[in-house]
Amino acid sequence: MMTVSEAVTARHSVRAFLDRPVPRETIAEMLTLAARAPSGGNLQPWQVDVLTGAALGALKERVAASLAAGPAGEGTEFDIYPRALGEPWRGRRFASGEQLYAALGIPRENRPARLAQFARNFDGFGAPVLLLFSLPRHFGLPQWAHLGMFMQNVMLLAAERGLATCPQEAWALVHRTVGEVLGLEEDRLFYCGMALGFADTAHPVNGWRTERVPVGEFARFEGF
Fold first, then answer.
1. Burial class (CB in 10 A: 0-12, 13-18, 19+), 190
2. Distance between CA atoms of 196 and 215, rounded to whole angstroms?
3. Considering the domain 14-79+122-209 in this protein, what is its CATH number?
4. Please, what is the angle between helix 141-160 and helix 24-34, to 10°?
5. Residue 1, pLDDT score
6. What is the CA radius of gyration of the chain?
7. Where do the domains of the chain lie?
8. In the structure, what pLDDT confidence band is assigned to residue 207 with cuts at 50, 70 and 90?
9. Each residue's pLDDT tens digit, 112-153
10. What is the mean pLDDT of the chain?
11. Average pLDDT over every residue of 6-13
12. Phi-psi bin for 183: left (phi > 0), alpha (psi -120 to 50), beta?
């Protein structure tokens, strides 16, 4: 049995999946356990729509049509990144992107190939399952944090079961289409998707890992 530490280490964002189904029972078990995440007042603010098969195919078709009509997307209801992203965060984001494209052999000047790779977000990178997360629109920052803890549980539970995930904020760019396909009520705010399946370990895009800064750069210890 994988330990929590092993699951945390094993989890990474996978961007190429095998065409291998994931049983509904496995996903339901994961979500049941993930819902043990803490939330202030036990509000449990999360909602998740789980799509596979024809349902996932229908979403992809609608999204493809939307992007064909407007390649820039539909805009987002929130800023995925701060508009004035300073250092060291800007540098970390840049390094992550460069490592991704380097793994695929796509140089900086090949913008069409980079855009094509980004567009793979809307195919879920070939994953057989897509989870779509939302929460009540009037909820605030604390409830967003609780949703994040729920999602982290999902990813760690997936790793424990030999599954791979990729949380995808890119889906927020087509939030209107996603909301229409899912039939989300007006009072629900769509946040992001998460690809779920079995990793294609032979694909070069899955052969690299983002770096983490040493603990001394983000934690202060006092009184020890």
1. buried
2. 30
3. 3.40.109.10
4. 130
5. 82
6. 18
7. 14-79+122-209
8. very high
9. 999 999 999 999 999 999 999 999 999 999 999 999 999 999
10. 96
11. 97
12. left
Q: What share of the chain is helix, strand, coil (3-state, %, to 5)?
A: 50, 15, 35
Predicted pLDDT of residue 162: 97
Q: What is the DSSP letter of 125?
A: G
3-state secondary structure of 10: helix
Rounded CA-CA distance 217/214 in Å is 6
* Banded pLDDT at 158 (limits 50, 70, 90): very high
Report the amino acid identity of residue 73: G
Q: How would you write 168-209 as a 3-class SS string?
A: EHHHHHHHHHHHHHHCCCCCEEEEEEEEEECECCCCHHHCCC
49 and 132 in contact (C-beta within 8 Å)? yes
- For residue 106, give both structure tokens: 């796509």
